[in-house]
Amino acid sequence: MINILISIIIAYLLGSIPTAVWVGKWMYHIDIREHGSRNAGATNTLRVLGLKAGIPVMIFDVFKGWLAVKTAAWLGSDAVSGNLKELFLIGAGTVAVIGHVFPLWAGFKGGKGVATLLGMGIALFPWPALGAVVVFTLMMLIFRIVSLSSITAGVTFPLMVLFLPYEPKPGWPLIVLGFLVAIFLPLTHKSNIRRLLKGEEKKFTIASKPPQNLEMQ
């Protein structure tokens, strides 16, 4: 039980690392939450600060979710098994996503959790997670709208969990998680959905370089 509790605490602290906020403040002396979409995530970092800042933020935010699950699996390996283990690992990954959305180190104002959720998915069932990446990429190539691509990948994710040919097949906790992801992503993109319905959602662009007043100092 102590190891399980430690795993959950570690997962939240990992998720709480506000990568976009710290990169913005340390490298450019800005709060990324005051620019662009005002979201403390990789997409807004790419949009405002460009590839040099955005790619590391994206990679680390994915890594947070992956590491939270793998750490929990290591610490809880002797404590739980079967469906209970799946539930435990899902719990650890979910806590990491919650940490990203409500980060302890950044005033509980973080990102939308998509990259960290992807890292969690890669750790739990890599093939469906990679399938979701393919769907996201195809949607981005066609429409160049991040929110639409994220929502579509999330909504199709449980179908990939159920029907992609991979082993070992997931237990019911992971199947339920797949459907919860399909609910979670639209809920975190409610404002984007409203703009999509009005035709007001902007297409994604990457800053070629930060604006002059945001240049690295």
Q: Layout of SSEs?
A:
Elements lengths: L1 H14 L3 H10 L13 H8 L1 H25 L6 H20 L12 H11 L1 H18 L2 H18 L8 H17 L1 H9 L19
Number of discrete domains:
2
Structural class estimated from helices and strands: mainly alpha
Mean pLDDT: 91
Q: Strand portion, in percent?
A: under 5%
> Largest sheet, if any?
none
Which runs of at least 5 residues are low in confidence (pLDDT < 50)? none
How is this structure best summarized?
The chain has 217 residues and is mainly alpha-helical. It contains ten helices and no strands.
Overview of this protein structure:
This protein is mainly alpha-helical and 217 residues long. The chain folds into two domains: 1-124, no CATH class; 126-203, no CATH class. Helices cover 69% and strands 0% of the residues. The protein has ten helices and no strands. Helix 1 (2-15) packs parallel to helix 5, helix 4 crosses helix 6 and helix 7 packs antiparallel against helix 8 (146-163). The protein is globular, with a radius of gyration of 17 Å.
